[in-house]
Every structure is written in C-alpha cells, then in structure tokens.
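Can you give me the bound-state structure? Components:
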Amino acid sequence: MIKAAYLHIPFCEHICHYCDFNKVFLKGQPVDEYLLALEQEMILTLQKYPTNGLETIFVGGGTPTSLNEKQLDRFCESINRNLPRSSNLEFTFEANPGDLTKGKLQILKDAGVNRLSLGVQTFNEELLKKIGRVHRAKDVYQTVDNAKAVGFENISIDLIFSLPTQTINDFKESLSEAFTLDIQHYSAYSLIIEPKTVFYNLMQKGKLPTPGEDMEAAMYVLLMEEMERNNFNQYEISNFSKPGYESKHNLTYWNNDYYYGFGAGAHCYVDGWRRSNAGPLKKYMELIDNGNLPIFQEHQTSKAEQIEEEMFLGLRKTDGVSISHFIDKYEIDPLQLFEKEIANLISKKWIEIKDDNIYLTKTGRLLGNEVFQSFLGVTN
Amino acid sequence: MNREEKLKRQSNIRNFSIIAHIDHGKSTLADRILERTNALTSREMKAQLLDSMDLERERGITIKLNAVQLKYKAKDGEEYTFHLIDTPGHVDFTYEVSRSLAACEGAVLVVDAAQGIEAQTLANVYLALDNNLEIIPVINKIDLPSAEPERVRNEIEEVIGLDASEAVLASAKAGIGIEDILEQVVKTVPAPTGDPDAPLKALIFDSLYDAYRGVVAYIRVVEGSVKVGDKIKMMATGAEFEVNEVGVFTPKSTLVDELTVGDVGFLSASIKNVGDTRVGDTITNAKNGSTEPLPGYRKLNPMVYCGLYPIDTAKFNDLREALEKLQLNDSALQFEPETSQALGFGFRCGFLGLLHMEIIQERIEREFKIDLITTAPSVIYDVHMTNGTQIKVDNPSNLPDPQKIDHVEEPYVKATMMAPNEYVGAIMELCQQKRGIFINMQYQGENRVNIIYEIPLAEIVYDFFDQLKSSTRGYASFDYELIGYKPSSLVKMDILLNAEKVDALSFIVHKDFAYERGKVIVEKLKELIPRQQFEVPVQAAIGQKIVARSTIKSMGKNVLAKCYGGDISRKRKLLEKQKEGKKRMKQVGSVEVPQEAFMAVLKMDDNNTKK
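Here's the bound-state model for the whole set.
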C-alpha cells in the first residue's frame, strides 16, 4: 500500500551553487499551468494506483515557497482535494528562510501543513554568500519565530557541512546557533559536488577549496557528538530528532516502502516499479496535456534488487534492518543469504547484530558506502 | 591462364610499400591512391581506410599489415596490377616493416615538406635498401605555408644519398601529385621476376585467425602459382594442407581462381593449429615442392618484458588463449607462465618495446575482455654470479641475493635523435639524466642535428620517448638499436605494502638513482592506492635496508549523505560504480591495489614531464 507522496515545485528565485535538483529560474515560467498539470498528474495517478490514505506528504523543490500566496493556496487546496489522507498525516513543506511571509505561513497552516523543513545550510554569513544562498542568518530566527507564532510545532532545518573553506569551528558555531532555535528536527548533509552545478565547474578548474575527506569525517563525528549532547536522537545517517519527531517521509525511503512522486523530474516507487518523470517543464506538461502519465524512465525492480535495496537503504537507519521484517517481506533469512558478507563486515567492525537488528556501528556510519556495496550483486 | 598470359600479367605487376614518419601523411596518401584507382567509391571511403583496427584509428598509427590489390590504367595505355602493402611507422614495429618490405620490389618514401627526414624514416629507408627495393621519393604537404620542398629535396640527397631530382612534389590531402606517384611506380618499380611454372614458393608475411576458416595466411607468391584444391606444405613445420580458398584484397576480400608470381593475397586451408603457419615461413607444393625456402626475416627478439596477470584469477586460461591468438600474427610477442606471490598465476611476456606492450595489453582487454594487471616493464639483465655462472633475469623479483652476484650487465642501445638545432641542449640534458654516454653529433642540412648516445635500454623503455617529445615540443624524432651489454651498478628495489614485500612491484635501478627513485615511488604509490580500512605503510627497500617510506591513510568518510529526493536508482548506480572500481583492483595481502599502481615505476618522472 502506498502511504507517502512527494510533490516537486521546480521553481527558484535564486539557484544555489551546489544544487543539482530539477529546477528553473522562477521568472517567466508558466507556474499556474504547471500547478494545473501537477493536479492532473495526481488525478491520473490516483485512478491507476489508488491509496487508502497517506501518512506523509512532502512538498520539495526547487523552492515551494517561491509560489505566490494565491498559487500556494490553490496548490494546497488541490493536494487536499486529490490525495486521501490518514488521520495522522505528516504534511511537510520545504521553505527558504526569508521567503516565508506570515501570509504564506498562515496559508500552509490552514491547509493542514504540520511540518516545515527550512533550508538553512549554515549560519556563517560568508559561507552563505559563497554557496549562493540569499537569506541571512537573522532570517532564520525570524522565520522560525513566525512559524511558531502561527502554530507550527514540528520544524526541521537542513545544514550542510564540508563546505568550501569551511573550518571545523565554523561548523561548530553553526551547530551552536542551530541548537538555540528550539526546534524538533535536524538534517545535516556533507556537501556532495554534483555535475551541472556551479561548484562542479569550479572544482573542474581546481578552484574549489573543499576541506577534504579527513575534515569531512571530523565534522561528521562532531555533528553526531553535538546532537547526542543536545539530546537529539540520530535515527539515520543524516537525520536527528527529538523522540517522536522522526520524519515519516524520510523513513519511507529508508524502509524501502512505496511512494508517489508528482511533478517534473520527481521519482516514485509504486508496485515494484521505480519511475522518474520528465524533467523539462515543457515535456512534462505536454505529456500530461495528452492524457499520459509524465513518465520519463521506468524500471521494474527484481526481487534481487529489492533485497539489495532493503539492505542498503535499511542500514542507513540507526536501528538498521529488522531480520524478522526482512524474512516476512522476502521469505528469506538475510543472515543466511548474506552470511559471508555479514561475517566480513562484522570482522571489520562496521556492522553489528543485536536481537532482531543488523545495524551500522559508529565507524560503519562513516563508511556506509563501503558497507552498502558489499550487498550488491550477491543475490541472484 | 597459360604461361604466356601469366608472364604478360606478371610484367604489369608492381608491388610497393609506403614508408613515412608518423604524421607525414602515409595514410592519407594510401587513401588517395585507393580513390584514384577506383578501388572504392567515395561513398565507401572511410577516412584512412588502411588503418582498419579500431586501436589503429584511435592512435593514428598502423600496427597490422594490410595488402591491397589495385588496378591502374597508366598513361602508356596498359593496365597495371598494383599491390600496396602498408607498413607501420613506429620504432617498435621495425620487424613488421621488414616483413612488408620483403613482399615488395619498391617503396614510396614520403617526407613531410616542412619537417624533413626523421630518424624513424631513415631506419626504414635503410631497411628498404637492404631489401634491394627501388625507392620513389615523394615530398608531401607541399601546399603547407611552411613547406620547403627544395630544402627537403637536398636533405634526401644528403642524408640518405638518394637521387631526389625526380622526387614527386605532392599533397595527399589536396590530391596533388597522386597521378605522378602512380606513374613513377609503373616506371621505377621493377616487375616481379620469377617463374610461374616453377614449384610454388610463397612467403607468409602475415596471418590472422578466423573462427570459420581457420588460419588465413597473407602471402606473396615469389615462384609458381597456387589455386584451390592444391596440396601445400609449410616448409618450416612440414605441415601439409589442401587449399580451400585463395583471394586478394581489393580492399574487400575477393576470391580469385589462382595466385601467381608477383601476387599478394591470402589463402586459407582449414589450418586449425596456429603454430603451423609461421610468419616468415615459405609455402610450397606438397609434392615436388621447392627445397630451398625463401629467406625469412631477421627475427627480432623481445627487448622489454613484463608480467601480465588477469585480475580475475579464473581467467588465466582465457589469457593464455588470447596471447596464443595474438602471437599468431605477431611472432615478436613471447610469453611463458609465471607465478607471483602477490598476483597469482600469469605470464611473463616479451615485447619489442613499450608501445608494443601497450597495444597488446589494450587488445587483450578490448578484444578478449580480460581485465589485466601489468607489471612494470623490465629488460633482460645478464647476471654474473660469484661462482662463475651466468644467468639471465627478465623479472626483477628474480634477481639473486647481492652476496651471490659478482656483477650485473644491462643492455645498451645506440639512440639516434634528430631535431632542429635549438633543442640540442634539451636532448643532451635528457640523455645525461638517463645515464646516456655521448657518442656523436652531426649537423645535417641547415638546421638539423643528428645526435647519437648510448643509453641503457632500461631507461629507454620507461618514458624516454614521451620525455624527448615534451622537451623538444614534439620536434625530435628517435630511433634505437641494441648494441650489447655493459656492466652497471644495479640494485634491486623492493616495495613493501603493510610490511609485506610485493614481488610484482620490485624493480631494478642504478645505485646512484636508487634513493631518489625509492622516494618518488613510495609517494606515487601513496597517491595511486586508495585509502584502505587501516593505515598502510609503503616502504622501498634495498635488501634489508628501508630507503624510503610513506603512509596511505585509513579511510575517513565514505557515505552518501543525501537522499536525492527519492531517487534510489541514482544511489544504487553510485554504489555500483564504487564497487565496480574495486573489481579492477587486486587484493595484495590485506591491501587493495589498483592496476595503475603496478605501473607506477613507469611514471616516476611525471614531475618533470609536462603533460
């Protein structure tokens, strides 16, 4: 059963130097037409793949809050009209600090949005400029205050570390600032330089002074320690929360569960099929105008792939993979299937098994990819 | 055909090669000749048709021989049959050149009108003269603004001693002078002599293996004739076969009734065993055949040895088969099984030079899909033991204990370099660095110098040619020949990873350079070997003595932070790519070592090579 939906708003007023998501400059774009197409996609999809009720809806981008109040209002209304929800829905909007006016906050609140994910990235003004963000640190405090005033009780911020020229002290200071906000959730990602970004081009020219692998590791360790010290529970490689505030949406991915993906370039996983939508707006809207689902690529996962993904996604969670759940789902014992790999990883002290769970050790978290790879190409 | 017809046809056959330095326009000229003789419609023309192997096109060089039959209607009204036999231009393939020249009566010498004669051209012209070939000088690229045809004409006369008064001025690219060249071929290249009724004598100058037809031998008929159904004998091996097909390349392979004196073509005879057709052997009739084989070729011995190991140890037999197949038409390639503690089962292979080695390695990886570890190349050392015996060592890890060695001799070459005056300094500096001994320097023509050094072959096989090119901005050309062995103070340098000696990384080095090389190589290895789970010390040692050390740090962080908006396929691809990269590494003890690391010893001089 499908319990999660991702919706993509591909518009941005400014484009960040590290971002490789599907996005375009807002100016001059057919935003209203796009929102209509998005609604049409929800209708078509729900007819074909119905759900009893969603437990999480996540609106990401791009910049969802780059929509004007009228567009935002209509968009939320169309979500609520078309996507059935269960009683305990987590409904998240991504937002840029500074973009979120009181008016927009109220619209979201009224529409039932109950979680905000703010793209803070760092509190260091210099670094904010360097990575192409236009908000300032003070915008973060203001936005969080406003959100609380409107009644939001579940707020998360994104941080990025290992930024160009960033020192461990910079990061430490950003973390201290972050802890003053009195919010419920943090996501912290190390910078990954992706092709087709400003940073990638700089790196190609040798003009991007990144802190390097060892510093990145040190920052990650600092992050985990600081989170623990401030009573935030690390429930996944990059995610930390107060108890009960774990993001249901993120967990959908790591639990290898199904999710809808609506919008240009969005990804979905439904009935064993992984699909991605056409990225270019024109192409996306054209497909929908002709009464089609806007699918660009699709792949039916084999059982072997599902099993591998169950492992490399599940192990991202602090609790890891539940052996009994795995057996229920795939009718095979992971301890037998991966006997050799698991023994090898345990000997390297990268994973542990306790009771029903296989999970990464603290060292293992730093070297997750090394662990995940070992489960690829083993089953047939 | 009766005897008269055969003799008439024979008198109109012209067999020739094109000799040229790389980039002087040989392939373009060959294309023009093919066009002019209507061998192909222009629609069929692929650029540079004779270089048919992918690898050849990519590298812009010729490796394998190709022979094409062409019809040319000359100004005298007669129709002539040409056989154009291609020759490789690189110094490693001198042997192949001698093979193709042996199938010809003439050679077109192409010299670039701007650059003049290069060392390699010179070497090949001498080979042609040794084979009593008539030489037709062609000054190519005369349409270039920098062309100096008169200077080059003088150079040909002065440096080679050829009469260049009738040299054809041409531009293969612009199609100038092509007709003149063809007319000169008719006039200057002698028709083949030989008796079509005599017992068959055909020289095998190349061969290839075809899954359906067995061995296909490329032959030049010198005496007699051969047709389908004939019983033939290989004179060197005595093996007998019945001919299934005979044909020529036009350049499409085309079956004919018979090949007779002067013809250059192919035959197949259900020859399954690769060893039965040796390049250089003579084919004759099984009954009443000739007793006197044609002179074979000067058989070249490999000069450079390295170990080839399959990364996947299960592919050892596949690698053997691949080497056997390649050896079929590349008798200069030698191999025998060897074992390495670090790398398992593989082969010690002998090559003519570094390019030859790279080409074989690439062909095995591409055509046979076997991922390889190649160890650093080594020459053959003559080791004189204290007990008076003498052994040959082609694998550095086999060098005996220093206490048992009286002295070691290493092969030296005479290296001939030609370049414009202004690079003399750079060339001499490079040769000194490479332990060269200055022999001679001659000015040739106005602005060209011929410099001769004696240099240890071991220094040449690394990256001498690359360095020579980079220090002379590509203007220097280079040729070398082996001159014998000289005593040298050589020591074996061992490399230890995680305190374990890795035999495949050992190399032999001159004592005076040992410390420095040790230092460079441990740094190089540190760069090339990815971080491992544990810290790995890298040490260079002579005997028990550690002379250099570096450390590969343990892995810091390798985990994908983002979730890519639910794009799990992308995560998977990234993990798969990382895993694939590991497959191309070899587990040596507890350390995963990538292919390139085994060649690190080659790249030691990267620091002063501008790339």
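A couple of observations. Chain A touches chain B at residues 6, 8, 21, 60, 188-190, 192, 213-214, 216-217, 220, 237-238, 250, 253, 259, 261, 266-269, 274, 276, 299, 305, 308-309, 312-313, 348, 365-370, 372-373, 376-377 (CB under 8 Å). The radius of gyration of chain A is 21 Å.
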